Amino acid sequence: MTVTAETSWALARLARLVATPQPDLVELFRSLEPPSLSEADGEFAGYLPVRGLSDDKLAVVDAMYSGELPAGLWLGKAFIGTTDARSEGYNMWRTPEGAVKRSLRFTTFVGESAIDGKPSLVMNYCDFANEAAAIGLVDEVRKVEDGVYIGAGLTAEEREAGVVSGCFLLAGPVHPSTVVDDPDAERK
């Protein structure tokens, strides 16, 4: 995303959202509409707000930002935008060597939210063989405004319990989407 007068408001909004308590982010999420698949095209910078998270969720955020995860430090998500009914995407990581790794794939489609039954841009990890699929992770994204998006991720256990424990933020696109580093590594 090029920073211009038009995007400065979006960046200011993003900065305020990063400081927002998680329960308020969940309520904001519930009030929004999804982006289209064609709009969600490219690599998006990811942000993990921490105010109001439980200790176990704080530990996950700490691992994602410290680079302790096997993939490295979480940078964000990418969507391979399309006008088709389904597409796919991936996560981006900074490795200890400083390279960007693209992995942890998901299928994308606009579908019914497990959170509130309204339309969301759904990211289903379960269509691939990766660690997110192992816990039944499904993320959902809604549009705050051009360039700013809010997402919520729910494991199979959280969906069954009807629990939304936290949100993440995406800004961009900051780069065009590409392909994952090893397309055969996560195939089912």
What does this structure look like?
The chain is an alpha+beta fold and 188 residues long. Helices cover 24% and strands 35% of the residues. It contains 5 helices and 8 strands. Strands 1-2-3-4-5-6-7-8 form an 8-stranded antiparallel barrel. A hairpin with a 6-residue loop joins strand 2 (73-80) and strand 3. The longest helix has 14 residues, at 5-18. The chain is globular, with a radius of gyration of 15 Å. Mean pLDDT is 87; it is low at 1-6.
Strand order of the largest sheet: 1-2-3-4-5-6-7-8
Helical percent range?
Answer: 10-25%
Rg on CA atoms, Å: 15 Å
Strand-residue fraction?
25-35%
Please tag this protein with its features.
about 190 residues, alpha+beta, eight-stranded antiparallel β-barrel, about 25% helix
Give a short synopsis of this structure.
The chain has 188 residues and is of the alpha+beta class. It has helices spanning 5-18, 22-30, 55-66, 131-134, 156-161; strands at 42-47, 73-80, 87-94, 100-112, 119-124, 138-145, 148-154, 167-175. It is globular and about 40 Å long.
Give the topology, please.
Blueprint: H1 5-18, H2 22-30, E1 42-47, H3 55-66, E2 73-80, E3 87-94, E4 100-112, E5 119-124, H4 131-134, E6 138-145, E7 148-154, H5 156-161, E8 167-175
Antiparallel strand pairs: 1-2, 1-8, 2-3, 3-4, 4-5, 5-6, 6-7, 7-8
